Amino acid sequence: MVIITLQRNKCIGCNYCVELAPNQFQMSKKDGKSVLLRANDKKGFFTLKSNENDILEVCENASKACPVKIISVKIV
Asked: How many domains does the chain have?
């Protein structure tokens, strides 16, 4: 299982995550910040748990590209 977490309140809207993983992230038209699709919000931490291992590489690339380091990717 892949677990992706986004600290949305710290997002600066650079759009790298959307460019690298467009099926998992999109930019909000309301505030210009990243949205982790299909994620659950818990106190500002948006978490997606997925059994789709094919998203691992693109999400890791998005995490590495994020200039404020607010995306974490774990395998459990």
From this structure: 1
